[in-house]
């Protein structure tokens, strides 16, 4: 495992090198000033030379659209603000959007949209890349530790950044507990199994508990107040609100260094806002737009996206022949949007089972873990 973490010591395409291997950013004695700098310094640093700011943005893996006002006099600050209101803050966000979506922005003509696309297109690779180059880049992807070495081994290092991981299971299977642990470990230095970034939490069921975060932080010798300051939580009250929150999330990630987005849970509001077969098509279309926006944020900012999901009864014929009687909600749209799908099941006592349900590169194995006061841990040998 140590060799694996060292091989993934930095994600060069998304993260600046922090030289953290020899520094304990979160020592038990006192908070390091370097750590405060990681979280408290905005990417949009004021008072600096524009070229230096652009250099910092390039290191972070994205460039902000505000730079266009210095490149072309036809692009004004008002134009950038209109894009920002719709969640477009970076060059990548423009290139990942459809022309139809961009043309729907009030106050921007089709000619100006074409001009913006032309200006940013040369800075974002939207074409083919050799498999060798992709292979080399994937070696540098940061994996966020889960708290359990057994689960880390199952996932080849932890939760993958730059992609969507879905965790589904019945009530009390440990989904929210797992997310609370990730909200802490994502802030750790890479050398300690973290990703050196803040966490955004979209709470649809009122399950976020800062008290739990404080408990877990103490396990890693972190200052609970600092850890809580690095987590921003938004309570979503309906499916429209859940999607609109992503615009604010993009603004936060463009300003400060983030490594994780948690949605707990992704389907809860959709199951209450859309009911019956008559609204199923509308629900899936709305859900598809939300998931597409999430994937865009993962690609744009290189963050890990973890979303929990509920289960429903499996009424097909497989259950009659010993198959699983439960399956994740959301249908094919959810299945195709998730890069990795993890199935959580209850075990004996506080034991839980994490099974790789679907993944493009992980085998369908499982690992057991336990939930303790310290968070997610390996099962003690005497259990």
UniProtKB/TrEMBL annotation:
What InterPro entries does the record tag this protein with? AAA+_ATPase, DNA_recomb/repair_Rad51, DNA_recomb/repair_RecA-like, DNA_repair_Rad51/TF_NusA_a-hlx, P-loop_NTPase, Rad51_C, RecA_ATP-bd, RecA_monomer-monomer_interface
Gene3D superfamilies attached here?
A: 5' to 3' exonuclease, C-terminal subdomain, P-loop containing nucleotide triphosphate hydrolases
Q: Which UniProt keywords apply?
A: ATP-binding, DNA damage, DNA recombination, DNA repair, DNA-binding, Nucleotide-binding, Nucleus
Please give the GO cellular component terms listed in this UniProt entry. condensed nuclear chromosome
Enumerate the residue ranges of region (Disordered).
1-41
GO biological process, any: DNA recombinase assembly
Residue ranges constituting the RecA family profile domain according to the UniProt record: 140-311, 318-381
Q: Which SUPFAM superfamilies match?
A: P-loop containing nucleoside triphosphate hydrolases (SSF52540), Rad51 N-terminal domain-like (SSF47794)
Supply the Pfam families for this chain. Answer: Rad51
A single GO molecular function term of this UniProt record: DNA strand exchange activity
Q: Where in the cell is it found?
A: Nucleus
The family note in this entry says: Belongs to the RecA family. RAD51 subfamily.
The protein's job, in short, is: Binds to single and double-stranded DNA and exhibits DNA-dependent ATPase activity. Underwinds duplex DNA.
Q: What PANTHER family does the annotation carry? A: DNA REPAIR PROTEIN RAD51 HOMOLOG 1 (PTHR22942:SF39), RECA/RAD51/RADA DNA STRAND-PAIRING FAMILY MEMBER (PTHR22942)
The UniProt entry, under NCBIfam families, shows: PRK04301.1, recomb_RAD51
What is the protein name for this chain?
DNA repair protein RAD51 homolog
What is the source species? Answer: Strongyloides venezuelensis
Taxonomy of origin reads: Eukaryota, Metazoa, Ecdysozoa, Nematoda, Chromadorea
């Amino acid at each position: 495992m140590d060799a694996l973490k060292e091989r993934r010591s930095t994600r060069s395409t998304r993260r600046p090198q922090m030289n953290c291997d020899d520094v304990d950013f979160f020592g038990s004695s006192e908070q390091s000033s370097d750590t405060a700098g990681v979280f408290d310094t905005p990417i949009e640093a004021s008072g600096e030379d524009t070229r230096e700011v652009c250099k910092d943005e390039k290191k972070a893996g994205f460039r902000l659209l505000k730079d266009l006002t210095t490149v072309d006099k036809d692009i004004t600050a008002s134009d950038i603000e209109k894009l920002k209101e719709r969640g477009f803050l970076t060059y990548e966000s423009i290139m990942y959007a459809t022309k139809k979506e961009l043309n729907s922005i009030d106050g921007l003509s089709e000619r100006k949209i074409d001009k913006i696309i032309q200006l940013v297109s040369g800075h974002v690779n939207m074409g083919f890349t050799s498999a060798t180059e992709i292979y080399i880049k994937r070696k540098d992807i940061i994996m966020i530790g889960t708290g359990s070495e057994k689960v880390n081994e199952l996932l080849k290092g932890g939760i993958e950044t730059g992609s969507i991981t879905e965790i589904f299971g019945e009530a009390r299977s440990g989904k929210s507990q797992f997310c609370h642990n990730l909200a802490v470990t994502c802030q750790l230095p890479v050398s300690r199994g973290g990703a050196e970034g803040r966490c955004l939490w979209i709470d649809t069921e009122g399950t976020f508990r800062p008290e739990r975060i404080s408990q877990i932080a103490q396990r890693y010798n972190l200052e609970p107040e600092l850890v809580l300051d690095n987590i921003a939580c938004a309570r979503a009250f309906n499916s429209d609100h859940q999607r609109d929150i992503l615009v604010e999330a993009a603004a936060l990630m463009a300003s400060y260094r983030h490594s994780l987005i948690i949605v707990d849970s992704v389907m809860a509001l959709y199951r209450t806002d859309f009911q019956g077969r008559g609204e199923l098509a509308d629900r899936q279309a709305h859900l598809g737009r939300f998931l597409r926006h999430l994937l865009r944020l993962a690609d744009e900012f290189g963050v890990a996206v973890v979303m929990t999901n509920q289960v429903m009864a499996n009424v097909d014929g497989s259950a009659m022949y010993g198959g699983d009687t439960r399956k994740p909600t959301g249908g094919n749209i959810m299945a195709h949007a998730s890069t990795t799908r993890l199935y959580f099941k209850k075990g004996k006592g506080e034991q839980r089972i994490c099974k790789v349900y679907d993944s493009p590169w992980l085998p369908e194995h499982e690992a057991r873990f336990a939930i303790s006061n310290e968070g997610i841990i390996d099962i003690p040998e005497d259990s």
